[in-house]
Amino acid sequence: MSDVSTTVLFEHPLNEKMRTWLRIEFLLQQLHRHPILEDIATALTFFRTVSDLLDVLERGEVRTDLLKELERQQQKLRLWADVPGVDMERVEGLRRTLKERAAVLMSAPRMGQGLKEDRLIALVKQRLSIPGGCCSFDLPTLHMWMHVPQSERDKQVQIWLESLAPLNQSLTMVLDLVRQSGQFHNQTSLNGFFQDNAEGADLLRLRISLEHQLYPQVSGHKTRYAIRFLHLDSERGQVPARLTFELACC
User: How far apart are CA 127 and CA 20, in angstroms?
Assistant: First the structure.
């Protein structure tokens, strides 16, 4: 296994459903990273991320797709029952957790509804598209809220984050299982180009040595994909004629 400190991991979705899930995961990670809003800069970063998340949740059938995937993963685990030597206790434990996540997600209010109906979030969201539009004279409500005791703000942020828990827990489990479904294998690109088939896969994961300063540009149609490696320094950088990298199809 490669030393993580000397490699960069890239993930590329192979369908719209996975594209949406990765974007939601990215935004949820940011929200949970800085839950203490001590100043206007951290507060605006938080509200901007909430606004982005609400926009993503509006676009697709996130709950339906996640419920389908939770059921699909349960079906896959059932197939392990006939495999000799499998730790069935662990498999059954995973199946129970998947079932619980699905039940919680099914009974939860509409995704992001609590955030959408919050007056302060709505006020800030309206002004975010205006350059500098969240000044104290534009948003006196936010300015006042930033002066209430920190404990009150912390409590409010916790309520907002807890409203996202059913989504966060289901999505985290689904993406963990998807990522674990593909093993990394060494591959070689020729003159910065590599292509292959990805039948039934949702996600490509690439590990590239940091020393090369390369990043992948992925394109594809249905089950076939192509990867072109480009140098960070587009003018002077060199792409090796043969490049070994690690690839997992999940």
Answer: 25
